[in-house]
Amino acid sequence: MPEARYIIIHGHFYQPPRESPWTGLISQESGAAPFPNWNERILSECYTANAHAHTMEGPVVHIRNNYESVNFDVGPTLAQWLANHGQAAYRAMLRGDALSRDRLGGHGNAIAQSYNHSILPLLAPRDRDLQIGWGIADYEYRFGRRPLGMWLPECAVDHETLASVAAAGIKFVILGPQQGQYQGDRADTRAAGPFLWSNGTAKLAVFRFDREMSSTISFGEGLHDGARLAEWMAATARALPEGASLMFATDGETFGHHKKTGAAELARALILLQRRDDIVLTNCEQYLADHGTSGKFLIDAPSSWSCPHGVERWRSECGCRHEAGTRQGWRTPLRAAMEFVNNHADAVYDRFAPALVKDHRGAVRASIRLLIDADPATHEQWFTRFGVAGEVSRERLLRLFEMVRAGQSTLTSCAWFFDDFGGPEGRVALRWAARAVELAAEHTPSIETELLARLREIRSNRHEVGDAATLYLSLKTREARGRV
Ligand SMILES: [Zn+2]
Prior knowledge:
Blueprint: E1 5-13, H1 38-47, E2 53-57, E3 60-64, E4 71-74, H2 76-85, H3 87-103, E5 110-113, H4 125-143, E6 149-151, H5 159-167, E7 172-175, E8 181-183, E9 195-198, E10 203-208, H6 211-218, H7 226-238, E11 245-251, H8 262-275, E12 279-281, H9 284-291, E13 296-298, H10 331-352, H11 360-366, H12 368-372, H13 376-385, H14 391-409, H15 414-417, H16 424-440, H17 448-456, H18 468-481
Parallel strand pairs: 1-4, 1-11, 1-12, 4-5, 5-6, 6-7, 7-10
Antiparallel strand pairs: 2-3, 8-13, 9-10
Helix pairs in contact: 2-3, 4-5, 7-8, 10-14, 10-16, 14-16, 16-18, 17-18
Bound molecules: zinc ion (ZN).
C-alpha cells in the first residue's frame, strides 16, 4: 500500500490593534455595521464561527471546532483582545491546540507570531529580537508551552531575521514559493518540504505553502464548496511523491469574514479529508517530527508574501497599490517618523530604566508578561526575580515598559500596507506614537514639536485627511476625551 500524502492548512489570524492605547476601547467604526467595530464583526463572522462551525451532511448537522484541525497562529495583540472580548473563540483556539496535541502525539496546531506584526527585516536588530522574544513569551503565557513554529508578519524575511528566529529556539517557519531558492528532490514539485535553512551555526525548517491553491482559497472560489475543495486538495496532494506534504496558508479571516460561508465550508472540507485513507490531515509540528527536512532553502534578498518588491511596501513607494490611483510618497517619511518615536522610546528606556532595575535589557525582554497578565502573583514574582522593590519603582518601571511597547506598536505593518495612511490602519500607528511620546515626556522634554514638524510634511491622498500632523492631533484629542 502506498504511503499517504499529507495536507496542512494554515490560518494566520490577525487584526490591527484598533483599540485606544489609553482606554483599551475601540471607537465606533461605521463600515462595520451592524457591529460597533470591525473587531466585533470579524469576531462574529470568523473567530467565533470557526469555534463551532455548522455544516450539514444530509440530515446530520456537524458542529466542529476548526482550530482542532488546522495549523494556526493568532497575533498576540489580537489574542489579547479576544481574551477580553471574544472568550468563546479564544478558548476554542486554546482547546484546538490542546486537543490536537492529544491526538497527534504531543504535536500541536498553534504556532507563535512575533508580537506587533512589524516587518522584521526592517527593524533594528534589538527591536527584532524583542519582537520575537515577546511573541514567544505571549505564546507561552496563552498556550502553556514553548512554541516550535513562528509566523513572520507578511512572511517578511531576510538572512538576519531567520538567524534571530532560530537563535530564539524556534524550529520552523512558513514561507511562500517565491521567497528564495528551494533546492532538493522535491523542490520542483508542489511539496511543502520542509526545507532546511542554515547559516552554519543555527538552522530552521522552512515549510513552503502552495501559492496558487492558497490564492484560490483566499481570493478565488476555492472555498465556495468544501466538498469540492477537499477533492481538489486531495487530488493535488496525490500527485506528490509518497509521504510528501502539501500546504495551504491564508489569512484566517478568509474563513468566514472575507468568504461568508468560509467557516462552514472549511469544516466540511476538514471532515471529508479526515475520512480518507490516502490523505493525512496534519500540522507542521507533527510532519516535521516524523519526516524531518528534505532539501535546502537559500535566501539572498529580503522577501515577503505580499510585496513582489521585497519588503519595500512597508517603507517606500514600491508600486504596490498604485492601481488605486493614488501615490505612496508618504510611506518613507511616515516610516522615518515612527522610527524616530520608537528610537526615542528606546533611548528614554535605556537612560532611565537602569536606576530601577539592574538587568534592564533582560527586564524589557521579559516585560511583556507584566503587560498581558494582570495576576498580582505574577507581578510579585516578576519584580522579585528582577530585584525591583517598592511600589514607586515598580510603577515607574511599568510605565517605561508601556512606553517601549507603545514605541514598538508604531511600526505595526498595517499602517503601510494600503494606498493611504488616512485609513483605520494608519491611525493605529499615529495613536501609538502619541501614546509613546506622552509616556516618554514623563522623563524628558517632549519630542512632540519635532514629530509634528515631520508629520506636517506627510500629505494624504485624501483631501479630508490633509497631513499626518492634523490626523495625529485630531486622534490624540479625541482619544484624550475618551480617557477615564
Ligand atoms: Zn511592493
